[in-house]
Amino acid sequence: MDQLMNLLGGFGDVLTPINLLYVVLGAVMGTAVGVLPGLGSAMAVALLLPLTFTLDPLAALIMFAGVYFGGLFGDSIAGILMNTPGNSTAIAGAFEGHRMAKAGRAPQALATSAIGAFTGGILATILVVFFAPTLAEMATKFGPGEYFALAVFAFVATSAVVSDSAIKGLATLAIGLAVATIGIDQVSGAQRFTFGVMELFDGVSIVVLTVALLALGEVIYVASRVGRPEDRSLIASKGRPFLSRAEFKEALPAWLRGTAFGVPFGVIPAGGAEVPTFLAYGTERKLDRRRPNPMFGKGAIRGVAGPEAAGNATAGTAMGALLALGLPTSATAAVLLAAFQQYGMQPGPLLFERSGPLVWALLASLFIGMIVLLILNLPFAPLWARLLNIPKPYLYAGISVLACFGVYASTGSLVDQMLLLGLGLLAFAMRRFDFPLAPVLIAVILGPLAESSLREAMNNSENNPLTLISTPITITLYILLVFAIVWSAVTKLRARSGEDLVK
Amino acid sequence: MSDTTETTAHRGFWAGRAALLMPAVLVGIAVFLGVGVAQMEVAGSEELFGPKAFPLITIALLLVVAVLLTISIIRNPEEPGPDGENLSSNWRSVGIVVGTLVLFIALLETAGWIIAAALLFAGVAVGLGSRRYGLLICVGFIISSLVQLVFVGLLGLSLPPGVFGLF
Asked: Which residue windows are transmembrane per the record (chain A) (predicted)?
């Protein structure tokens, strides 16, 4: 019951008027960025990072708690009302959500999604409170072999298993690994690929990379599509924003099932919530077919409830994996890791001992943030949707200004602005030719970990490669990975032969 | 039947194969890493898994993927959509946006944040199809000044003052 006491202590730290204000501020800004088309929670954290530079660590972390989940609450609004999900994790929920909106049930779809996000997030965060310290203790036994296996798992899972084309995924993974090696080598102190440019000694900043890939690349991509007919009609959300008792009862099992799908995926480094949201969607659809009156295709409330809960449950446990293992399992977690390090917190097994009070305050503010977000989103979702009425030129011009500002404020160098532009162009090419972006981020985040653990393991064992598969944990991880590859190959082949409602 | 072959022939080799840019980028990065590895000065003992090992693995991965990618793109070129959807990008818009970003970088530390960011806003909006130039410049200045006020004035971050620093 130590955890409960610690958590109560955390609540004690957070429940002051000024800190509550930071939670609300974070939640509002996170939701706002999340609502904007094309920007999800990773961008919300990256763009708002410089905002928190002048705050003290506790206030900054509290604000991030709001931003982190705010982005996730927000991105389903665009998906439901405009059929343009702000994030890959909101795609699965947008299928039925948009159909509900078309059928005049937009407020109900938004409410289902908000409550689903709340349920998934809260349940997952409760699990984190109880199991993160145990996880951290387990992780103290991890050696370089285990960390290398985790990194390899993340690389292969995000590039080959999750993305549509394994070759394209591996291509962007390789780009990310190349970017990750830039900078001074941690082990030997040798300069690598800096060519004497001082700004590169620390490597490419994760903020620059995220903003370039997710924001600037998107702006240039949208520019390249100017002049094409597009379907961006916004469906107005009018009427009662609450669910009737029958609707609530209908959605409840889907929320819980979605949460169950999401929870394990937060801890697995597989690049975020795409897989669990689609698994939840697929399950709800299968269950729906067995019912006397199938609703899928006509705007099924369960098709919104499942994926939304799964998405936020993944985000919740991803926070646990980040704190306890120091392992970012999604792009958002990766940016958050950079933010933590900015404040001298080093996530990982020792975090709970070293920065205990901060961590528990962060966990407490996650709970408060989620309640604030539910309040912000349930009755006010139609208000948020107004953001989608901003004309596109203004919207993307604003995003560009915000992106350049964010990068300059966090690094203060022109070299980083040039990197931002260069990587933005690369991201545009990747968007244009349908290359996945997630593997780049994962590779840059986990590349250094993979490299240092590989070198440590090999140098400790006189270059015997068998050392990498010498413990039960590593063997389990590699078996899991092989299983995932086979499973994804089978489902891809099946999907190719079968007709799908979605396509 | 003959119709399709004709159009394919007419479209030429590069049509639908613009994605070959990506393997070229991969090879470019591999060359960049290769040059870096060759120039790298490593102090101390030459271990098998020193600072060069991981870049070399990355180079190998880049080259293998580039080859596979090239094969796959040549075999399956991008087809225009069923409704004759145009695949090519609007290079005019892209040019304006990228040009604006270059201008922003050039002006940021010389003319200062307020001017550079205002032009950035206006330029990107024009690139995205807006034609209300006067309004855009005004909105741009309002936004850049607001950012300056809030972040420099209230939160104490530093942004380049540029010409405004002369007063």
From this structure: 20-49, 61-82, 109-135, 147-163, 169-188, 200-223, 321-340, 360-381, 393-415, 435-454, 466-490
